[in-house]
Amino acid sequence: MQKLEVLEYFLMFFIAGGFLAQSFVEGLDPVEVTFDLFFVAGQIVTLNAVYITIGLTLFFVLTTVLLSTEVYSRKEIPWIDSGPDVAALVPVYQDAEVLEKAVESLNKSDYRDLEIYVVCEPGDDVTVEKAEGLDCRVLMNSRPGSKAEAINTAVERVDADYYAIFDADEIINPEFIPEGVGYMEQGFEAFQGRRIPITGGLSENFAYCERALYHAMYELMELTGFCFVKSSSTIVTEELLEKVGGYEDVITEDTDFTYKCNHADVKVKSDRRVTNRMESPHSFRDFWGQRKRWSMGFIQLMHKSLIGEYASNKSFQGARGTLRAITGVFGPVLFIAFFAKLVLLFILGAEMIFLTSITVVALPALILSFKDRKEVDFIHFYSLLSFFTGLAMAFMRIKSLFEYILSWDGEWFRIQKEGDLRPQ
Predict the structure, then answer these.
(1) Please, what are the domains in the chain?
(2) N or C, which end of the chain is more exposed by having fewer CB within 10 Å?
């Protein structure tokens, strides 16, 4: 381990430990609340930890209600199975193990006017050979080195009404494109579906809980009109790509694209009932490495937002995007304070508050998993991992911040892909 990496881990534990200790001590502070309601007046004195814990628990209740309302909505999903030309784009790099299932699933799509394009990187001979043996068209990235440029290259070369973009490790449901195009034909410029991490082992279930927690958090920002437009399970128009300048070659090109769409005030439709499956990290090392790269990407985009690279922060779109960027980086750190308060309450004998809070944080994963049980294994009590995914994200954000500043050299972490995308 290099000296800078040792320093980064030291700073991570030092900052996180200091925040944890401070939050623990502050939890012991008494807080007085005086009330005067009609003929009843009084004063309640309790610990700071109680109020903070109850407040954060109610916050998670709110996000869970919003998420549940969406995924269990009975509102009709539009459906169009032919008409506009759709190009399905699958950028690949060293993805030979998983590519076949992605292409096969696209060939089983219920949408008829569909062409499938696999965009390969020069020099990746194994994946190129695999793609050429599948029922799809093969393109080569003319500006090799990034997923962003692979997508941009395909759009330049392929003429279509809509571009549906997928990762190589996705299994695309037959109804995804008909439903997404159904929304696009209602006048939206982009459609975003939900990817379901395939469950099974401990690390896979951990990843599922993490994604469920994030989807619950996304619901709050979507109340302001901020919607994610990523580079997987996504459908966009060529006009949109021209409007925002396509995808940028940054660490997290999908989140960067989201901010560009937000500041351009693009009309986006997100529906978490429209899903595809994706491969999960098969080890905690892979989980940490992949998510840490994403964390550094979020930090990079927060910096871009703060200096006004997307749009003036004096505009509503600019302020909204910058707020999302800041909360995306520092929001998870609040889990450390939450954890400190819960530990304090547990020590003081308030087990009911402790158990209630842990359960509430687990609800998004439990509710989504029940909804997704026909596609992936139901995770039942593994949903209790959710709180620890939040805590892991908190440590990861701190580590990523120091790594981004001190040592990151542009190298991307690649997780191991096994190619078995079916639930066990």
Answers:
(1) 3-72+332-406 (no CATH), 86-304 (3.90.550.10)
(2) N
